[in-house]
Every structure is written in structure tokens, then in C-alpha cells.
Design brief:
The complex is a heterodimer. Chain A is an alpha+beta fold. Chain A has helices at 35-48, 120-127, 149-159, 166-170, 177-188, 197-211, 220-224, 232-246, and strands at residues 2-11, 20-30, 71-72, 75-76, 98-102, 111-113, 116-117. The longest helix of chain A is centred in the last third of the chain and has 15 residues, at 197-211.
């Protein structure tokens, strides 16, 4: 069945320009189409009418690249739990609905155009220490490192983060704790991550605080996360951060 | 700019002497090195940050070279390698089931239908084991056994379990490993990262690649970048079909620009159609979604025996189902290679046995596996895939069989490279899916990740210094050189032209038309007649594009229509070359299936006497017929035979 919807979409020509909401009628939308395919249809019609299409980030459209993400009726990635915008299908809306579509709202994510924001600050956090130093070619046989299945599985739960930034957009403080904790925990849970465990958590948290707001445990981030990453990882990160700060582990030879 | 007909290129694959198993080690010893203190004197440009690009940038940066890395996405972590689901092959033989470098080599050569280079494939199998070591050292959370050891599963075209995986997100985890290594180098200052930048031209001077011209996708600024060498790790061209499993941004532009500057494009007609994707459901469809090949480990593929059967699948008794892969290929059954599985599905649907409302799919059924192993086991193995299927189709695959149909997934063709991964333009290297080198006419599942990382972590970092060593003491070409000015002018002209046409049709309209033409006439099966028709249609559509496309907005801001328009413009030219290549190859092999050339039971029929070569095409100027240059394939180690998976 086809849907007829009213869209209120944030339009902003340039980073420094003043934005505003524009209203568009989205008629005859297939309920089997995805949210982004609905925007494609609207864009095609805008273009036919001589109006510039709505800019939005997207790439894989399979829910894994983390490119897409808009705030739909006040919720990052829309009404469905554990779902990216590209995997949200129109069958979850009803004909006659008005849908408000905004970019991620966070001071660390300036709007570039319409629904496109600059999330490079997330890359900055990873650059601060979100890696294991492992020069190419120097590794020993893969099976010589035993990793308990439970540790590996939990690390994978954290590593599933797609870096979309919905956690930041959902947070009233614009904090990036869930994103940072996911990467810290992924690596700190594994044997390979131990040599840099303490410097990693200190450096990443410090870099995060350069850009983002502070966490006050609203846990809106977990609710918005399309991968369902648990706020437990934030607790793990905080514990490690505290430990790293409590003692100067570097002097004790426990950190590089 | 007019291009004169270029002189015919003489291709030398630079395959090292010696026995197959010693070639790479011997070659490594013979290649020139660059001493650690000299590496910072070299500049290297890497375009693309997927597995092949990010791993190379990280490794070269760490070795001490100055690297500039470019990607069109907003972050290097988003390259489309991230979407690979199933796994990565390696000849570790951890399962003690008879695997070896030799066997992985053999499976890959055979899987590629004897249309790849033995030496390259052997090297790929050889370094496969190091890749797993490297990734584990980086903290890639591969699936594990309870004892803490790594787990494996099987993939198509193999009778051993050699595939390492991280749930259904192996590509994501491997890419994040490479991205994290890259992030470290960015922080260290050895790699300068340019996200949201698209390469729009290759700069060639005195026959060497000396730099690139890029467009900043946020501001529209057009910039010149020079270096001692340029590496393209820009992925495949499957999006030429519009509907494919590729990311929406995946494109051929960087490779095509290099092709127009003289780099040969090899085997463009070798495109892989993946058998297990979610069928098309309507006109609005913007892409197709893959369901990992790993599902064929536990899922059984079938159609009703009667084409008129309209009962829901659970009401069709077993004896009225045709498990056609198990019937036709008992040895490999549901795990036959992709090209074989795809054609079999197409045949069933063409013959009227299709399932679903549009009768455009076949069932992939987990009923047996769930009753044998329990829902929990299946959920642990494939949970995220099942969830994705349900989100897209609204059907629960734990209860109802999945409906699947083949879709364009990967392109084996790409820029021609020698054993050192260098194109015929000195200084231009091509890695990963963007080159043509290792998969012949068909790629086996879980081998793309292997090749991308083999190229980026191990091959290029060994072969690139061999090229650079001779340039010690030189500085990169000045960006004020006329060659850069001319390349920039070319880019500006094209951008202005696209913005000034102001026609009546959107870029997507053209892209969809182009894709449909290629899918219908140059897709899973091809005939001389269909290909000739396709070439005509592509040409007229291309003409219409350049007179009637509508690209709104300007160059000086973020303009997604303009980005798409430039990419689609290049897809027209590539599409025409694909058809030409498919037309000239009078045989069937791997993903290239010519209806005129098949065995009595419908399998691909190769012609080794006349077509055991790489078809590398040389650009001869817009509107001129490209020249065909052949690189003969010599099989010394394996004897090409009719592939059998029965």
C-alpha cells in the first residue's frame, strides 16, 4: 500500500548559513521502500521541480558503514530499536503521518549541508589511541594467542560499533562516551590490547573531552544505538580510566 | 582535448623466474630496498581507504614513507570493504582437514575458471596465513572455539573449512583493524588523510604517474597533489549496473580516469553475480542487499517441483521440493561456487519455478538446520543476517524460508597490473578489487578480503620500494607543472559542462536506464546479439546524458548530484567497454556466460586454445575503438580442465 506523508526537513545551504525547516509532500511512497529510498523519491521530484535535492550522508545502505543517520521525529535513526536509518522501512509509518527530519544535533558535529554533518571528531578519538600497535609482518602465529571465547564475544559486542554518531546525537550533553567506550573496551578486553591498556584509555578519554560534552548517565545513547551497544562498556571504560589515573602505571612498566 | 591513437603497449607481467613456490621469496630478495632513513624523502598518494588502501597506507606510513590518503567518504572507516559479511580465507589448516597453500592456490585457480595468473594466485595463497596473524595481532575479534583457538567455516568452491570470520561482520572488523592502524599513523603524522575528497584525474608526465587532481566534496575546491607514486585502491565497478550490492558511492571514476590516461583495463566483462541476495521488490529500489554466502553452510536451496505451486513453503512437502543444487552437484551441493549457483537460480526462475509474489526468487531454507541444531545455534551463527533480512522484507526467516536471487556483487576485471601490482604506467600501482589480478573469471567467497589485505599489507609494501629506490634524490613533480595545469583544466571543464547542460532528466534516471540495459544484455548470460544491442543503447543513452541531464546547484558547495553525475558519466564509457570485451570473448568462463558457448548440460564451456589470455584494453580517444592487448596465460603448474563440482 502506498503512503502519503508530510515531511518537515531541515535545509541549510552551507555550514555558515542559517537553516530552516521546509515542508514537502511525499505522496505515493511504497511501504516496502527504505527511509532513504523514500528520500530518493522526494529528491527526484524536487529535482524535476528545479529545487536542489536534500543532501544526506549514506553509502552501503546495509546498516554497516555508519554513513547515514538523521533524526526522525526527535529520535536518531527513527522509531525502531537497533536500526540504522537505511534499514528503517516505510511500513513502520502510517499514511497521513508528518515526519520531522533533522541532522544530528551536537556542537561537535557541525552541519555541512542539510542533513549532512561533520563527524571527524570521532576519527580524532580513535587516532588518540584506539588501536593496538602491531607493525605489519611482525605478528606471531594467530593461534599462539588464546582468547577465551567469552572475552572474544564481549569484545565483538563492543567492536560492532559503526561510528554513526547516533549516541552523541541522542545525548542531551552531546557526549561521546558510548562511542569511545566501545573502542576502548573492544581492545582492552583482549590479550592483544593489554600492553597499551592504560595509555589507551587515558589518551582516548582526554581527546574525547576536547571535543564532546560530559556523560551524566542519561543512557539515551544505548537506546539510540543501532547496534545495541551496552552502556556497561562505559562503566568498564570509567573503571579503567580511574585506575590509569590513580596510579602512574607507566612508571610501573605496565604501559608503553 | 584530442587524444591521438597511442602506440600499442607491450605488456610484461614481470613474473619472476624459478619454481612457482619460490617465486615470491626469490623476488623479494632481488627487489631493491629503500633504507629507513631515506623513506621520509618519498611521497606516496593512496586513493581509497578500504582494505587494500587503508592497510597499504598504514603499513607504508609505519615504514616511514610520507603518505597522502584520500577517500570520498566522510571517514576512511566507511569504505565498502566494511560491508563484507562472511569471512576471509587463509591456508592455516587449523582444522586439520587437508588444507595447504597449494590447495588454496588450486581452489582459487580452478574457482577462477583458469583465467588468472598462476604466480599471482600462488603468492596470494602464500601470504594468506600472514594476514590472519597480522589481523589477530591488531585485535580483530575473530570467532573462537571454547578453548580460545580460532574457529573456521566453509565457503563455496572449497571442501575444507578455511574461512575465518567475525560473526557476519568480517569485513567490518578487518577494515576497522586496518583503519585503526591507519589512525595511529595519521596521529603520528606519517599519513595525511583527506576525507570527502574525490580523485577526478590522474596526472601523467613523461609517461610516469606523478600525481592526481581532486575535488573537495564539501567546498568544491579543486586541488593538485604530486608524489613519487600513485596507488589506486578504489574498488570495483559493479555499480555500473545501478542495482548491485555495492555501496551507493562505489564508482569507477579514479580507475577510469587512469584508463583514459593510458592505463590498460583488463577483463572488464568479468563481473560476479552473487547468488544469495534479496530479490528486487519495486521501482524505488536503490540497491540490493547481500545475504552472506556463509548461509549456504546451513541453508538448503530449493524451488517447488511444480511451477504452479502457490502454497506457502511450509505446506509444500519435502518430496514436492526440488533441491536443485543438491541434485545437480552432489559433491559440493549448496556450496558450489557463486557463478554456478547464480546461473542455476536464474535457470529455475526463467523456467517459471520462481517463488514470491513476483516469482523472482528461490528459497534458502533453514528449517532442517534449525531442527537439527536448534534455533540458538543458527542465531549465533547468522543472527545479524536474519535480522537484516527481516527488516528489509518484513518476513521472519526463522519461520519462513528466505527468498533469494542473484545480484551484481563484485568485479574481477580492473586495471591491468604486473606481478608488482604496477599498471603499464610506471608509478601507477593498483591494488584490491580495482586491479584485475587474482580472481580470473570468478572469485571464490571470502577471497576478496584476502586479496585486499594481501596487496595492502604484504605485496605493495614490498614492491613499491623497488620502484621508488631508483628515484632517490628526486623531488615529486611541481604542482605548477603544465601537466598538472592541464589535468586541472580538464576537471574544471567537465564539472562546468555537467552543471551547464540543465536538461530534463535526473542523474539517477540515466543511471537506472544504463543499469537495466547492462543487466538485461550483459548480465548473467550474454549473446552476441544482446551485446551488440547493449552497445547501441549505451551509446545513445550516453549522448542523451550529455545533452539532457539535469544537475542543479553549483560546484562551490556540497553537491551530491554533481558527484553522482561525474561517476555516471564514466560508467557509460566503462559499460560500453564491458560489452565490447564480452562480445569479443567467444567462450564462457566463470562469471562470463555466453549462451552460444555451453556444454550440453548447460555449464560454461571455455575455449582454452583461443582465449587463455587476459584481454587488456587500451583507450584510443573518445569515440574511437579501443585497442585490444593480450597477455597470454601460461599454466605450468595446474592443467586447465572443465570445472566440475559434481
Amino acid at each position: 500500500m502506498a503512503l502519503n506523508l508530510t515531511l518537515r526537513v531541515w535545509r541549510q545551504a552551507r555550514p555558515e548559513a542559517t537553516g530552516r525547516f521546509e515542508t514537502y509532500e511525499a505522496t505515493d511512497i511504497s511501504e516496502d521502500s527504505s527511509f532513504l529510498e523514500m528520500l530518493d523519491v522526494v529528491n527526484e521530484r524536487l529535482s524535476d521541480d528545479g529545487e536542489e535535492p536534500i543532501a544526506f550522508d549514506h553509502d552501503c545502505r546495509e546498516g554497516i558503514c555508519g554513513s547515514c543517520g538523521v533524526v526522525i521525529n526527535g529520535r536518531p535513526h527513527g522509531p525502531l530499536e537497533r536500526t540504522t536509518t537505511c534499514q528503517l522501512h516505510m511500513r513502520h509509518f502510517t499514511s497521513g503521518d508528518t515526519i520531522t527530519i533533522e541532522p544530528w544535533r551536537a556542537s561537535a558535529f557541525p552541519v555541512l549541508r542539510d542533513l549532512v554533518v561533520d563527524r571527524s571528531t570521532l576519527d580524532g578519538i580513535v587516532q588518540a589511541g584506539g588501536y593496538v600497535t602491531a607493525p605489519t609482518g611482525a605478528a606471531r602465529d594467530a593461534n599462539s594467542i588464546l582468547v577465551p571465547k567469552s572475552a572474544s564475544d564481549t569484545a565483538m559486542d563492543a567492536a560492532e560499533c559503526i561510528g554513526c554518531g547516533a549516541c552523541v546525537a541522542a545525548c542531551p550533553n552531546g557526549a561521546a562516551q558510548l562511542f569511545t567506550a566501545a573502542k576502548v573496551s573492544h581492545l582492552n578486553l583482549l590479550p592483544q590490547g593489554q600492553p597499551e591498556r592504560w595509555s589507551r584509555v587515558s589518551d582516548m578519554v582526554d581527546r574525547m573531552e576536547d571535543y564532546f560534552g560530559s556523560c551524566t548517565n542519561y543512557t539515551e545513547c544505548e537506546a539510540a544505538c543501532p547496534k545495541g551497544i551496552s552502556v556497561d562498556f562505559i562503566a568498564m571504560m570509567n573503571k579503567d580510566y580511574l585506575k590509569a589515573r590513580f596510579k602512574d602505571r607507566r612508571r610501573q612498566g605496565q604501559s608503553g | 582535448m584530442t587524444v591521438e591513437t597511442p602506440p600499442q603497449v607491450d605488456l610484461n607481467a614481470q613474473i619472476p623466474e624459478g619454481p612457482l613456490s619460490d617465486k615470491w621469496q626469490n623476488h623479494r630478495f632481488k627487489m631493491k630496498l629503500v633504507a629507513p632513513q631515506n623513506r621520509r624523502r618519498f611521497e606516496v598518494i593512496i586513493v581509497g581507504t578500504g582494505l587494500a588502501g587503508a592497510s597499504a597506507a598504514a603499513t607504508l606510513g609505519e615504514m616511514g614513507y610520507n603518505v597522502k590518503a584520500f577517500c570520498f567518504q566522510d571517514s576512511p572507516r566507511r569504505a565498502h570493504s566494511i560491508a563484507a559479511q562472511g569471512g576471509i580465507n587463509a591456508a592455516k589448516n587449523y582444522k586439520n582437514d587437508g588444507d595447504s597453500v597449494e590447495r588454496l592456490f588450486y581452489d582459487t585457480i580452478k574457482g577462477g575458471d583458469y583465467r588468472s595468473r598462476e604466480a599471482n594466485v600462488y603468492r596470494l595463497a602464500e601470504v594468506s596465513t600472514q594476514i590472519i596473524d597480522q589481523c589477530v595481532a591488531q585485535g580483530v575479534p575473530f570467532a573462537r572455539e571454547y578453548g580460545g583457538l580460532l574457529d573456521n567455516r566453509s565457503f563455496g568452491g572449497a571442501q575444507v573449512a578455511r574461512t575465518f570470520y567475525a560473526r557476519g561482520q568480517t569485513g567490518q572488523q578487518l577494515l576497522l583493524g586496518a583503519y585503526q592502524a591507519l589512525a595511529k599513523q595519521i596521529d603520528a603524522g606519517t599519513v595525511q588523510m583527506y576525507p570527502r575528497h574525490e580523485m577526478l584525474e590522474l596526472v601523467v608526465k613523461d609517461g610516469r604517474a606523478v600525481g592526481i587532481v581532486t575535488r573537495n566534496l564539501v567546498t568544491g575546491e579543486i586541488d593538485r597533489h604530486s608524489a613519487h607514486a600513485v596507488v589506486l585502491a578504489t574498488g570495483g565497478y559493479g555499480n555500473v549496473f545501478y542495482l548491485s550490492t555495492n555501496a551507493k558511492g562505489s564508482n569507477v571514476t579514479a580507475a577510469w580516469r587512469a584508463h583514459r590516461q593510458g592505463a590498460l583495463f583488463a577483463n572488464p566483462c568479468y563481473t560476479q553475480i552473487h547468488p544469495t541476495c534479496i530479490p528486487v521488490s519495486g521501482d524505488y529500489q536503490s540497491k540490493l542487499t547481500l545475504m552472506s554466502e556463509s548461509l549456504r553452510n546451513d541453508g538448503r536451496i530449493w524451488v517447488p517441483k511444480s511451477p504452479d505451486d502457490t502454497r506457502p513453503p511450509d505446506q509444500i512437502p519435502d518430496e514436492e521440493r526440488d533441491y536443485y543444487l543438491e541434485r545437480r552437484y552432489p559433491a559440493f551441493a549448496n556450496l558450489v561456487p557463486r557463478d554456478v549457483a547464480s546461473r542455476a537460480a536464474k535457470r529455475m526462475v526463467d523456467d517459471g519455478y520462481g517463488v514470491g509474489e513476483l516469482k523472482n526468487g528461490v528459497y534458502l531454507d533453514f528449517g532442517d538446520a534449525i531442527s537439527r541444531l536448534g534455533r540458538d545455534v543458527i542465531e549465533a551463527r547468522y543472527g545479524n543476517l536474519f535480522e537484516m533480512y527481516e527488516k528489509i522484507t518484513g518476513e521472519d526467516p526463522y519461520k519462513v524460508p528466505m527468498r533469494i536471487y542473484p545480484a551484481v556483487h563484485y568485479t574481477m576485471g580492473g586495471l591491468w597490473v604486473d606481478y608488482n601490482l604496477m599498471s603499464n604506467i610506471p608509478g601507477l600501482f593498483v591494488t584490491g578489487e580495482a586491479n584485475f589480478s587474482d580472481h580470473g573469471a570468478n572469485r571464490l567467497g571470502a577471497s576478496a578480503l584476502m586479496q585486499g589485505l594481501a596487496d595492502g599489507y604484504f605485496v605493495l609494501p614490498a614492491t613499491l620500494p623497488n620502484y621508488l629506490a631508483d628515484m632517490l634524490g628526486t623531488t615529486p613533480e611541481s604542482v605548477d607543472d603544465p601537466a598538472f595545469a592541464a589535468a586541472e583544466e580538464e576537471v574544471r571543464e567537465r564539472v562546468n559542462k555537467l552543471l551547464s547542460i540543465n536538461g530534463t532528466r535526473s542523474v539517477d534516471w540515466f543511471h537506472r536506464k544504463l543499469g537495466k540495459t547492462l543487466w538485461d544484455y550483459c548480465g548473467m548470460s550474454r549473446t552476441a546479439e544482446s551485446l551488440t544491442q547493449a552497445m547501441k543503447e549505451v551509446e545513445s543513452l550516453q549522448e542523451q546524458f550529455w545533452s539532457d541531464v539535469r544537475v542543479l546547484g553549483d560546484n562551490e558547495s556540497l553537491n551530491q548530484s554533481l558527484e553522482k553525475a561525474g561517476r555516471v558519466a564514466d560508467f557509460f564509457e566503462l559499460g560500453a567497454l564491458m560489452c565490447r570485451d564480452a562480445l569479443h570473448r567467444e567462450e564462457s568462463c566463470g562469471g562470463h556466460f555466453r549462451e552460444e558457448h555451453k556444454t550440453p548440460d548447460g555449464e560454461a564451456l571455455r575455449d582454452d586454445d583461443n582465449f587463455a589470455y587476459v584481454a587488456a584494453w587500451q583507450f584510443a580517444g573518445a569515440g574511437n575503438e579501443p585497442c585490444l592487448v593480450k597477455e597470454d596465460l601460461n599454466f605450468e603448474h595446474v592443467k586447465p580442465s572443465q570445472r566440475s563440482y559434481k
